[in-house]
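Backbone-to-sequence.
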């Protein structure tokens, strides 16, 4: 099956699932991305969309088949993915998300070392060409592995480093997380703040 080139946008890869973006496309993208970046390890995070686990599975398999390790960051936000790539020195990162798009969409936001985003002219077009050339079919002699890593506390400490906790006066706030990833990533941060929080829609829900 040939990949639909229309899913390659100016700043990400995005399309409807499974019509435009499916398991096979995810595998091809993973393989071509690993071939293009020539990394040792790629960090991968995902949002709560229903299609995200399957896309992760096949993207990771494509990366592993090129002899590259996948650092599975699990359910995280896009900003946390970029933080992890920069903080821990990974050679690249992929966030499985379609941002503000409706639930039938999903996609990949991709960055290279130092959390530098790939765009159409700077990387994504090369990944597409790699797929069209079939580079993902050329497997490495030794497959990469999947390593699970929880960065929630690391990211919380990073966020808290921007403020002086001693100068915060206790107060009462209401936060609406919209059933999105903020409902997960903000919890460790809020736990360290002198605030009383009324949480609205903090449950992750990929059926929005």
């Amino acid at each position: 099956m040939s990949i639909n080139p229309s899913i390659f946008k100016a700043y990400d890869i995005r399309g409807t699932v499974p019509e435009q973006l499916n398991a096979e496309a995810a595998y091809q993208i993973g393989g071509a991305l690993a071939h293009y970046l020539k990394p040792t390890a790629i960090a991968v995070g995902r949002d709560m969309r229903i299609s995200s686990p399957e896309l992760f599975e096949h993207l990771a398999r494509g990366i592993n088949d090129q002899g590259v390790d996948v650092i599975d960051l699990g359910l995280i936000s896009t900003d946390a993915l970029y933080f992890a790539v920069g903080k821990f020195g990974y050679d690249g990162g992929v966030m499985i998300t379609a941002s503000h798009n409706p639930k039938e969409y999903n996609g990949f936001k991709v960055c290279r070392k130092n959390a530098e985003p790939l765009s159409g002219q700077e990387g994504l077009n090369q990944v597409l060409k790699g797929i069209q050339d079939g580079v993902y079919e050329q497997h490495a002699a030794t497959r990469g592995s999947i390593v699970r890593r929880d960065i929630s506390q690391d990211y919380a400490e990073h966020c808290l480093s921007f403020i002086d906790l001693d100068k915060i006066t206790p107060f009462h706030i209401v936060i609406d997380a919209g059933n999105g990833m903020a409902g997960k990533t903000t919890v460790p941060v809020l736990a360290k703040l002198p605030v009383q929080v009324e949480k609205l829609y903090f449950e992750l829900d990929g059926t929005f």
